[in-house]
């Protein structure tokens, strides 16, 4: 106690003041959402290391939902291979397909998913959404209301209210990751939006998402 200056008494044994409660909010760590790999995965570049793609002042600050906790002080790092100029983030990589076009490849092994402009979730939370929908036959609206009432609005310091679009985005991305057979699968943002809309309007009463081409 004396070594850490946590004693309520001074060196003469006189009482000074009571020990205050340690705030978990003030000592919580800062989470950095980083790419899975630290080096370029392209065969021609391996093992060329990744460099930070943005300036320190431009690193985006986001909210991260980890398990059931809301972490307001989180930052997203994007790596870049200086040799082939491939960009790596926590959930995807982007490479130069032509001189004027880049192609995004979403990682099947991603540990974090981006579901909003400044909102990320971990794989445990996204897996909980899948289990909730299938186990309890919960709709995106029902799961959204459940999570907001149980976790999102309880902590006054880290209030985060999800909406139906967030839950539906998680459901689509996690479902594709689950059924993907390869390590990487190509899925541009435009395709994700079209697939999300098509599968939503073709959801039938059996709980099976039919092929949008049917």
Structural commentary:
The protein is α+β, with helices and mostly antiparallel strands and 214 residues long. It has one domain (24-201). Helices cover 28% and strands 21% of the residues. It has 5 helices and 11 strands, in the order H-E-E-E-E-E-E-E-E-E-E-H-H-H-E-H. It has helices at 24-27, 123-135, 140-152, 164-179, 189-201; strands spanning 31-33, 51-52, 61-66, 69-76, 79-80, 87-88, 92-96, 102-107, 112-116, 119-122, 184-186. The strands form 2 sheets. A 6-stranded antiparallel sheet has the order 2-5-6-7-8-11, with no helix packed on it. A 5-stranded mixed sheet has the order 1-4-3-10-9. A hairpin with a 3-residue loop joins strand 6 and strand 7. Helix 3 crosses helix 4 (164-179). It is flat and about 75 Å long. 21% of the residues are buried. Mean pLDDT is 81; it is low at 200-214.
Features:
214 residues; alpha+beta; six-stranded antiparallel beta sheet; five-stranded mixed beta sheet; 11 strands; disordered C terminus
């Amino acid at each position: 106690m004396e070594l850490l200056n946590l004693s309520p008494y001074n060196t003469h044994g006189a009482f000074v003041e009571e020990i205050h409660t340690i705030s978990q909010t003030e000592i919580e760590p800062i989470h950095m959402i980083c790419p899975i790999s630290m080096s370029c995965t392209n065969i021609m570049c391996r093992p060329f290391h990744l460099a930070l793609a943005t300036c320190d002042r431009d690193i985006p600050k986001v909210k991260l939902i980890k398990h059931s906790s809301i972490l307001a002080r989180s930052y997203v790092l994007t790596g870049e291979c200086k040799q082939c100029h491939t960009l790596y983030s926590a959930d995807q990589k982007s490479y130069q397909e032509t001189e004027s076009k880049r192609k995004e490849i979403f990682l099947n092994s991603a540990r974090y998913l981006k579901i909003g402009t400044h909102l990320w979730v971990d794989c445990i939370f996204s897996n909980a959404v899948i289990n909730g929908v299938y186990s309890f036959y919960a709709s995106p609206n029902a799961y959204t209301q459940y999570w907001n009432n149980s976790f999102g609005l309880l902590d006054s310091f880290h209030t985060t209210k999800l909406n139906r679009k967030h839950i539906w985005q998680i459901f689509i991305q996690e479902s594709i990751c689950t059924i993907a057979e390869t390590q990487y699968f190509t899925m541009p943002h435009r395709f994700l939006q079209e697939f999300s809309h098509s599968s939503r309007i073709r959801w039938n009463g059996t709980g099976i998402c039919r092929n949008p081409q049917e």
